[in-house]
Amino acid sequence: MTAALFRTGPVLILALSTLTYVFSQLLRNATGVIGPELMRDLALSPEALGLLISVYSLGNAVMQIPVGLMLDRIGPRKTTYALLAIAILGTIGFALAEDATTLTIARLVTGIGVSGAYVGAIVLVARWFPPARFAGMSSFFLSGGNVGALLATAPIALLAAWLGWRGAFGTIAVLFLPVVVLGALLIRDAPPGHAFHARPPETIRETVRGLGVVLRDRNQQRIFLVGFINYAAFATILALWGGPFLNDRYGLDPVARGNVLLAFSLAAILGIVAYGHVDVLLDRRRPLIIASLACSTTFLLVLALAPGLALWQIVVLFALYGFFCASNSLCLAHARALFPGRLVGRVATTYNLAVQLGAATFQLASGFVVGLYPHDGPGLPAEAYRALFLFLAAAVFVALVVYFPVRDVRPSEDARRGERES
Fold it and tell me: Greater confidence, 273 or 301?
């Protein structure tokens, strides 16, 4: 049976990688809808909640460089699925934690455990699919994996209403275990005949030298800053302040705010799919990324500066922002196109390092931004959330300015180079 499944080749690899990423995204974002309950049950301040949510990305970030080295040296299967066993332990610890310190440590461990899920899959996509299909297949993977972000909204709200937030996280751990076992058994690092199987292993010195080549490239540094800021702004709303904002300003219960965040996440998935295919149709990447950052800045400014918005207007703005900001796979495709295939693991992990550090930094900093505004009763004042959206809009605008000089790499040019390398 295993042999029959494996004969599906790239389809199986993509499906298993996507399923793994579903749980990674679910774990990342499940705290957003239950934020008010976490603050209530553990008496968390805004700063403490920001720290609790941010350490997931921090744990993910600190592992990116070693994960990148391991991906290129020993392959995605061993790297990714050994780490995911740690993620399951962290999730169980989160469900059982009785105080804020233990909860934060468990969240950190979970972030460390999922550190190979995204980049390991990106390496697999690069090896199992031709370069011309990289953006499309990686966007398919990202959009499919972001079903986890959808599950982290209304479904988690319903599950938490039934079992409590502890029971919800315990359920995630139980469901995640067979996915990890299946992936460890069936994933293969590269298709038969791929250069990965024949190449001599790099020495540690060669591996580190290749990492230096990636980090010193000026265009790459600019793309990394986009990754640092753009996804972080989105994750700060979805995984942290979206739930409290809808609770404090519009009085929504967990299920209702879960439904709003569901629309937010669904729009982001549609955006990922759109970006992954429009770049091939237009044979351009840079103009799409510039448009993404400009639109994201605009929608965040409207959220910050337009007072008294009705709930339906908030839902529309969230959906528009979610759709247009979802250019992460396009940025990664642009970053990957700047380097030869042998460096794909290091490119993916250094880019993801920027993404995860950005998410951790912004989520932590956002707690201090909203904490500047005193609140006597339950909930935060409207001024705190306006300051938050303005802070995020200013940051995304900086990313736009920094990215603007980066040279474009057309998908057709990338495909021709990939054919020469193979």
Answer: 301
Predicted pLDDT at 391: 97
pLDDT of the residue at 309:
92
Superfamily of the domain at 2-189+203-421: MFS general substrate transporter like domains (1.20.1250.20)
**Helices assigned H by DSSP within 284-325:** 286-305, 311-324
Burial of residue 63, with CB atoms counted within 10 A of its CB: 0-12 exposed, 13-18 middle, 19 or more buried: buried
Q: Is the CA virtual torsion 184, 25, 269, 254 positive or negative?
A: positive
How does DSSP assign 190-258, residue by residue? S-TT-HHHHSPPPPHHHHHHHHHHHHH-HHHHHHHHHHHHHHHHHHHIIIIIHHHHHHHHH---HHHHH
Cβ atoms of 386 and 283 within 8 Å: the answer is no
More confident residue, 4 or 250: 250
pLDDT at residue 146 above 50? Answer: yes
pLDDT digits (tens, 9 = 90+) for 259-299: 898 889 889 888 888 887 787 788 888 899 999 999 999 99
Residue 144 makes CB contacts below 8 A (sequence gap 6+) with 18, 21, 22
Residue whose token pair is 């942290």: 240
CA-nearest of 118, 119, 124 to 146 is 118
Q: Where are the alpha helices (DSSP H) in 325-375?
A: 328-336, 344-371
Q: Give the whole-angstrom CA distance, residue 347 versus residue 349.
A: 6
Closest Cα partner for 248 from 31, 46, 5?
Answer: 46
Indicate the pTM of the whole model: 0.73
